[in-house]
Amino acid sequence: MTDMKKRPSAGSKPVVTMTPGHVTIADRRQFLIGAGMLGAAALGAGTGLGIRKARAQSRAEISFASAAFFGKETFGDLIKAFNESQDRVLVKNIELPPPSSSTEVYQGLVQQLARRNGTPDVFSQDVIWIAGFAAAGWALPLDEYFPADKRSAYFTGTLNACTYDGKLTALPWFMDSGMFYYRKDVLEKHGGKVPETWADMATVAAAAQKAGDIDFGYLWQGKQAEVLVCDAVEIITSNNSAILAPDGKSTLINQKGAVEAIQFLYDTIAKTKISPQDVLSWDEEPSRQPFTSAKAMFMRNWSYVWPIAQDGKTSQVVDKVGVAPLPAFPGGKSSACLGGYQLGVNANSKQREAAIELLTWLSSTETQRRIALNFGLAPTRPALFEDAQIKKEQPFMASLEKVFTGATARPITPAYAKVTLALQSGISKALVSGNVQAEMDALADQINKIVA
Amino acid sequence: MTAAATVTGAGRPRRLGRALPGALWALLLLAPAFVSLASVSFYPIVNGLYLSLTNTSLITQEQDFTGFANYAQLWGDAQFWNAWWHTMWFTFASTLLETVIGLGMALILFETFKGRGLVRAAMLVPWAMPTVVTSKMFGWLFNGQNGIVNYILLHAGLIDQNINWYGSADTAMTTIIIADVWKTTPFMALLLLTGLQTIPNSLIEAARMDGAKGWITFWYIRLPLLMPTLLIAGLFRALDAFRVFDLVYVLTGGGPADSTETLSTLSYKVLFSTLQFGYGSAVSTAMFITEGIIALVFVLVLVRQIRRAQ
Predict the structure, then answer these.
(1) For chain A, which terminal residue's Cβ has fewer other Cβ atoms within 10 angstroms, N or C?
(2) Which residues span the domain enclosing A212?
């Protein structure tokens, strides 16, 4: 902070000694000490400071805020690399809490953006905040900078999540999605074919359960929490339906497609009994544990399960697990709930060009490859899934292209925070009581009031 | 007193002159306490009340005065009333159980026996634990698949299949109440133990001389004399139980089917997930008013008790 504030006065003085393009934030302090002493001399000399001075002076200063992810390096290192790679823009990294505290990250961002003072210039945001930030007028529409031909390099699902009211207000960065884990060894005994419809899945799971090969056929997440909305988005979309109508002003949650889908989830507990009643209180981890202790045949979960399942210390299913796109209803298409952080530019940024330069760099093929290799976060550019280095170092990630193709955004509405609370409560009620149609009707009334 | 003061005042008029700066001094010395209380206690309450009369929302960037619109909405909000009833039930059940069990513990710990000091210290361990740790611990104890509670009940033949404690709307709240009782009963026991120690032993000895047995002594001597302590401890506990947050937040998040949603978790969601500061403040104000009413009831009973004792 202090370094950055001092910068303008330093910049106007003795830039002679510095090689532009190699000043990092870490160097600055030492540089400033020297700057004070050199200042007088430089002013005295006065003449012929030349082009270098002009270029260094014009180096635009912007800030970048993101939830803190860790891997072989941090986002701070990434920003440092950007600062070193060129001499036009100098970026200050603002580190927010880790993604596990996403409510705090959200509050932090909202507070800063609501000030409308241009800080942070560039930020990363969870997919579900994009519409809200866009509707508040905090996110700069990016259409002029990223025309259709540039956009085609990204997954369609992530682009949809980044679009609000017909405008691209975020740029895809990295992603995750729901996926279908299965036990190869158990499946081998029961036909060997990965089920592509929900009904097939239920039949195979019930058969394996009856034969005593596993305790649970299918594990999912029914806890009254955000993940329940993800599970619901996937199954509802796979029945050619959606939570919100395309215009986002009304809900389809009590229509036939959605009700059938939620009914299927209820039936896994009450009718086909391929899921234990406990899924109603399980989020990701509680549902992962029985799977990696070899008690379950199928599971819906995120990509983080893979390394755990392959680690002999924590898992009894090493090399016995396969991953595929989630099943669908007959005539529907497999869908995977989209997660991950996407990039945005502050509409009040005073350094728009510099912000766009950073944005472009962060989302470039090169940087996305670096993030995939060093952070284990999957790229939003399908082409990178064919990348030789990623295939070699992250073979699992490279295999996910088919899963990510079905990536589906959660309801895109500025009132998402309210909608998700209503969905969590309403769907949980339906799953507990079994009165799916009645609960979905009540839920639809609530959501229509929120989004209308 | 007043008469005496007037007399001295009239007798020495000079002092009256000095009395004014004296009063000023007193005010001046009180000022820091007043300012700090006003800024950390009074101002937030007033500001919260004001916010509850606006439609302030960080997301929509609105901040207009809307009168009682939030309260009208609250009155018809089924989720609010659902949370209100859960909170009342939780407060009632946990306070009652903790008082009764705490009283029993206090009576035992009051008796002299070998290792009493050790037991008294050990008893406080649950209370000293962070609630989040307690929550995680009870999450595992009552785990539907691998929990020890199910294991014991199953092997004792009391149930014929595992109960899904947190996943069923019928048992989730009960389980949270059990966790709270385990954690906070020692606190009640400690308060009541100090209360027991203030009862003069001579009264109990006299009762024994008259031939009163244990039960009679408890019912006619100890309990009536313990009543004020009991009520104050109950008041503390009820107000504390009313704002239950961590247990619910960690164990169930308010589910399943909203069956464990309490006012604290609801206002957290409204305030910090949806950032509706106006409506969220109305929920908090409703909590504040309800707590005020609970406190009033306790205080009225307490005052009656004290009057009767006099």
Answers:
(1) N
(2) 177-335+415-451
